[in-house]
Design goal:
mainly alpha, two-stranded antiparallel sheet, globular
Length: 225
């Protein structure tokens, strides 16, 4: 019997995510190495060039996602901004994660949609940070004189420390949890379709599955992709 699956990550979303991931790694390494003076002067100069080179695809892919696939961008934003009682209730015990990993607090998690409350909050912070980094980074590169000393300093500090905080969150929260949820991880990175098993989705994202199945029923389709 064929295993039932649902589409978790569309191709445009996976392309954007993976380009962002590659660019962010290079930008973080080069940017922090220069700021904290972890390398010599010659290497710092080369790192700053690489920092600019990888900022270009990061910016273009972000804008391209908004322009080329506005429907996907709208759906993503709508999902992140949709908070109901179950989303808020998730915060009472952080979705049961403290109990699951450290036996602290209480187990269980209110039914969540495509993203749980923690994922929504984190994604919103990343989206906001990405927008700020693009604006501050390119402003510092192209028009530092127009900003003046005060705003140059503010933009620079925002650029460095927001990226630093988000990078720490990515390394110590997002990446470990992504690997922990292995079917979701594979859906994002494998060469085939970005699908997850239907039963896995029902367990972790029941509201999203109910919504998807209802739409497929209206269209006369099937949850398998």
């Amino acid at each position: 019997m064929k295993k039932m699956v649902v589409l978790r990550h569309s191709t445009p979303s996976r392309i954007m995510h993976n380009v962002h991931m590659i660019c962010w790694i290079v930008l973080a390494v080069t940017g922090f190495a220069v700021y904290f003076k972890l390398v010599g002067e010659e290497v710092r100069a080369a790192f700053m060039q690489w920092h600019i080179y990888f900022a270009i695809p990061l910016t273009l892919v972000t804008l391209g996602y908004l322009v080329v696939t506005p429907d996907r961008a709208f759906m993503f934003a709508k999902e992140l901004l949709s908070w109901d009682r179950d989303t808020i209730a998730w915060w009472k015990n952080l979705g049961g994660y403290p109990y699951k990993f450290f036996k602290i607090g209480s187990p269980g998690c209110p039914p969540q949609s495509k993203y749980n409350a923690g994922q929504k909050a984190f994604a919103l912070s990343v989206v906001a940070t990405l927008a700020i980094l693009i604006v501050t980074g390119w402003s510092l590169y192209f028009v530092p004189q127009a900003l003046g000393k005060l705003w140059t300093y503010i933009f620079f500090m925002l650029h460095v420390w927001l990226s630093f905080l988000v990078t720490l969150s990515l390394l110590f929260v997002h990446v470990p949890l992504s690997i922990y949820y292995w079917p979701d991880f594979k859906a994002m990175f494998r060469l085939g379709p970005g699908t997850v098993p239907l039963e896995y989705a029902r367990e972790h994202n029941p509201k999203w599955v109910e919504k998807e199945l209802a739409l497929l029923k209206e269209e006369g389709g099937s949850p398998g992709h």
